[in-house]
Amino acid sequence: MLIYDAGSGHPARPSVASAKSAEMTLVVAAAIFDDTGRVLIAERPAGKHMAGRWEFPGGKVAPGESEEGALRRELREELGIEVTAARPLMRLTHRYPDRQVELSMWVVERYRGEPRPLDRQRLKWVERPSLADEDLLEADGPFVAALVQWVPPP
Fold first, then answer.
1. pLDDT tier at 52 (50, 70, 90 boundaries)?
2. How far apart are CA 36 and CA 13, in angstroms?
């Protein structure tokens, strides 16, 4: 798994820093693909931080919850799908003017169900090379670059 600090462009240390910082929020994000290889993005709903911008589905990891557990819970709550196989792709930290997040991107290899907008959000399937053209959150930039170059395992 690649560890990257999106703010400095330098490699980041694994979660040690986040465990010490009360201001850091741990978030999981999912790369979910359809049968043609497009990736799913979701628009942040009204009332949420940075509403109207696009992001990869996912959410905050609750205290005592594993990242994989949070990924499964968030995708069930937001999209109505059951993740049956997922693996970590990369991790990064990003500082917004009002908060700092540690993001863990997972590739969802298999899931049951069809993604539906259960959290008042719009959903969109996007070709990987076109991800950079979308109004995605700044923190997702390194994920976009990684996914455009990513080759799924056979």
1. confident
2. 35
